Amino acid sequence: MSSTRQSAKKFLIFVGKLLFTLVEAMIFGLLPKPRKNVAGEIVLITGAGSGLGRLLALQFARLGSVLVLWDINKEGNEETSRMVQEAGAPQVHAYTCDCSRREDVYRVADQVKKEVGDVSILINNAGIVTGKKFLDCPDELMEKSFDVNFKAHLWTYKAFLPAMIANDHGHLVCISSSAGLTGVNGLADYCASKFAALGFAESMFVETFAQKQKGIKTTIVCPFFIKTGMFEGCTTGCPSLLPILDPEYAVRKIVDAILQEKLYLYLPKFLYFMVFLKSFLPVKVGLLITDYLDIFHVMDGFTGQKKVL
Length: 309
Ligand SMILES: NC(=O)c1ccc[n+]([C@@H]2O[C@H](COP(=O)([O-])OP(=O)(O)OC[C@H]3O[C@@H](n4cnc5c(N)ncnc54)[C@H](O)[C@@H]3O)[C@@H](O)[C@H]2O)c1
Fold this sequence. Notes:
Layout: H1 3-30, E1 42-46, H2 51-62, E2 66-71, H3 74-86, E3 92-96, H4 102-115, E4 121-124, H5 139-167, E5 170-175, H6 188-210, E6 216-223, H7 247-259, E7 264-267, H8 270-280, H9 283-292
Parallel strand pairs: 1-2, 1-4, 2-3, 4-5, 5-6, 6-7
The structure holds nicotinamide-adenine-dinucleotide.
Nicotinamide-adenine-dinucleotide is lined by residues 46-47, 49-53, 71-73, 76, 97-100, 125-128, 148, 175, 177, 223, 225-226, 228-231, 305, 309.
């Protein structure tokens, strides 16, 4: 076949697939997407000792999943374990793990594989925030932000992805942030770590897709502030468009996105529009909107978690 005919054939196949995918997306946009069954799945949640991690564990317990809880905070994690048992999880396994330490992640991951089995849903949720302006932030704290908020994701993927690929079954969940979509003053190290987490999860989604590993799903979550205490003292200048989210609401949305195998979840919905605007508006217009929404001042009252991490 001549190269022109080959190119024409390739183009026609592409157009056919494009139309099919667009129609499919439109149909699923109108109809509610079916939720997958996660009963019996082994769900590992990092940072399960409080906040979103604890609430996610409770939701998966109600859905009949086997839970593997990781946290640096032993007491908080054991408390979650008790709550999850009461909520009806068929099995709960709590491990103390410092996700900022690669050796700790690999050691505890080996223990999980021996004692529980192959993790099929991995939720990288553990996170910290320094909440300091860049020049006031000690180097060690900035490194810690990267270790917990981003590098831990590399090590957990290395530990659990091979079995997911072998079983052609797995779901990788990245809890990033709206701070992983747009830079925020007073949050430079946090934003950078959350951009990195998002970039890594998105790249791994593309890598599994390109390698036709169809059983491996990815969900990337980018929420604005949630009332868990992590961003205590922070404010929003525009609660109607950018409300500070209720943790129960955020977790319901996150679990729903996982069950529907959605790739991206931004909370609240206004963030989708902000990202769209950012992609084409002149910088000065973007800054005017940022100023109008009072985003330059969201961190002014930051006090953060009361407990020491
Ligand atoms: N709260 C918000 O406003 C908000 C907004 C967007 C994204 N997020 C992200 O959501 C995730 C959960 O945050 P949260 O609001 O529940 O905060 P949280 O402080 O209640 O929970 C974080 C958990 O991570 C654990 N953790 C911290 N360092 C760890 C380490 N080295 N190893 C293991 N565990 C560690 C903590 O002990 C804690 O239990 C974080 O990744 C955070 O960045 C939070």
